[in-house]
Automatic annotation (TrEMBL), chain A:
The lineage of its organism: Eukaryota, Viridiplantae, Chlorophyta, Mamiellophyceae, Mamiellales. GO terms for biological process: protein ubiquitination. Keywords: Metal-binding, Repeat, Transferase, Ubl conjugation pathway, Zinc, Zinc-finger. Coiled coil: none annotated. InterPro entries: Ariadne (IPR045840), E3_UB_ligase_RBR (IPR031127), IBR_dom (IPR002867), TRIAD_supradom (IPR044066), Znf_RING (IPR001841), Znf_RING/FYVE/PHD (IPR013083). It comes from Ostreococcus tauri. This is RBR-type E3 ubiquitin transferase. It catalyses: [E2 ubiquitin-conjugating enzyme]-S-ubiquitinyl-L-cysteine + [acceptor protein]-L-lysine = [E2 ubiquitin-conjugating enzyme]-L-cysteine + [acceptor protein]-N(6)-ubiquitinyl-L-lysine.
Automatic annotation (TrEMBL), chain B:
The lineage of its organism: Eukaryota, Viridiplantae, Chlorophyta, Mamiellophyceae, Mamiellales. InterPro entries: UBC, UBQ-conjugating_enzyme/RWD. PANTHER family: UBIQUITIN-CONJUGATING ENZYME E2 (PTHR24068). It comes from Ostreococcus tauri (Marine green alga). Residues 6-152 form the UBC core domain. This is Ubiquitin-conjugating enzyme. Pfam families: UQ_con.
Amino acid sequence: MTKKSGTAPHLRLPSFDAFASSLDAMTVEALGDDAYYASWFDDSDDAENDDDYVTNADDADDADDGFPDLGLREGLPSETCSASRNSVYVVYEPGDDIKGRRELINRACGVLGTSERDSEALLHFHAWNLEDAVTSWFENERKAREACGLSDPDAQTSEGGMATTTCNICFDDFEPSELVTAGCSHAFCTGCWAGYIASKIGEGLSVVDTRCPMTKCPIKVGEAMMRRFLNEDDAKKFDVYLGRSFVESNVKIQPCTGIDCERSIVFENLPTNPVAVNCTCGKVFCFSCGGDTHHPIPCKVASEWTKKITLDGANSEWMLVNTKPCPKCQRPILKNGGCMHMQCSQCHTSFCWLCSSPWDAGPYACSKRCNQYKRTESNSNENRKKRARESLERYVFYYERYRAHENSGKKALEDVDKFKSSALGFLIELQRTSETQVGFVMKALKQVSSSRQILKWTYAYAYFELADDVRKKNFFEHVQGEMERALELISRMIELDIKAFLPPDPDTEDDEKVALEKAMAYRYPPEEQDKLEKAFEQYKTLLIDRTAVLRKSCDTLCIELENGLLGMSTPIKGSQQDA
Amino acid sequence: MADPAALPRRILKEAQRLRLEPIPGIAVEVSETNLRHFLCVVDGPEGTAYEGGKFKLELFLPAEYPMAPPEVFFRTKIYHPNTDKLGRICLDVLKDKWSPALQIRTILLSVQALMSAPNPDDPLRENVAEHWKTDERGALAVAREWTQKYAM
């Protein structure tokens, strides 16, 4: 039981350290090991742990992470797994990008001791990567200034003794005090500056990198100077452009891919693995590739798989193996009966399925005597077909499982909503308890849904990455199998076993309204109440433990995939249990 | 803005200066009907295939000028990779490299410079550029021929 204390914190604290320290323990410890399983049973205060999880995320919110306080998200909360656990991200509401940008500029000012104008130009040039900006600045300040369009502070003295009193744009004469420069020696009147900057706004996003109006002058016009000459409408546009440019050039930020969603996802530290992010709008997507989430497998494998299942590539393979072209019209024909005499449904040509020659020998046999083996190239054709068939079978195997988990995952997601809208209320009523006491069912449902999502992608991974390495494949299948088993145990509990505690299924004759009324009026028989409450307690303990086991095996699978299945070189203690 | 009465002082000044200090080798005349419309004649630069030719150009200052670049067209046929049949000119300062500190004067000088240094790597007429790249001597001969035929 002492072992437990080493691993349990991992569930309580989603922090990186706790997570990392649990890694070692987990790869060594077998999943599904009886002793280990028992340890989860003992740890039955787990329901509170899950609540801790929420508090914990809130605590982290208060931490000084340098981000505006926008409601911090801890990866996908408890129901997801490893990769997202150690990566903290926030969701920018529209307009927050400007705040985040300002925040970063202020940070740079603090670190470098530079003015806001300098920090802004420097960060813009370095795609808002503070580390790069700082490095370049300290390596060679003069060079760094030059690169990002800042004037040399020593040369700036020329501004005082400005030679010209004529505006270089309107050619009118002005008092030197009426002329303005962007930090170089090129002076323009305020009217021309306003006209120039307004015309730049009209050019779109490039306005964020406006330079001095003088031909070939590289000096960047600072944000404060821009704002000085913008009218109210243009200032609003300018803010939008600043925000968009900040989001687009900063690798730590991705705009949400949800339809019409204008939020962005922001990471403080860029995750090393592809990570699923969950926008406030509900969209879940892969931060790295912008595609639908495919955690825990790499973006490349996921996109290859998606291409394979959507493209007719696999389809044509199926056609190749299962159909033959009509000898006359070449339409693909699928044989659906026992007899070798085929007739094309389109052009009505009769032919022999075996040798594709015209069928003219009456109803009983092919006139070409195609039962006689002839050594021809058609033999190698058969080989090719055999290989194609094998490859197809392999594909279908993985595809079926991928689809099955996808569909079940979708259903699980629907179940979460369904449970929330009806069963949750019944349970609270019938069990005479509170919402927090039955929240564990929701957690289990969510864990099932996210686990299916992960499982689904592991089949794509296996299809592409594990074709040749038998050892890796066996190890992978072991870990995957453990997870599937844990998953099915829970699935059964939340789909079937829970019915014992809920109103009976409605009569098929009742319409929706009547069924709902009946369900709402239902109470346990008084003599059963105690018994059912006790049973529910047991059910709760078991489900919480099993959810924890599933979560852990889910994590293990993810970690193994992220690490290229290195865990197989570590001895597995519990493997004898499989025997 | 297009109202000639509201013609910016800058345009008037530019026109005045062009009259007082003409550009050597370039004649500029303001249209009588539209003060934003300029008719120019650029001498073919010496030592080039365009030498001896007088090339007519039309220059128009849009309402946004000088925040937007002038529109410049060749009105004399010219065999040059950075121009097209309609006389349009592919020149960076007429597009993204435009700066309000540039003027009619500098633009016309840029056009003259473009005649001296054709840039077949950034062509407007693919076939002429191809000719330039594969057979520069032949291309220059055609350019000379066109100069004699259309610009003299």
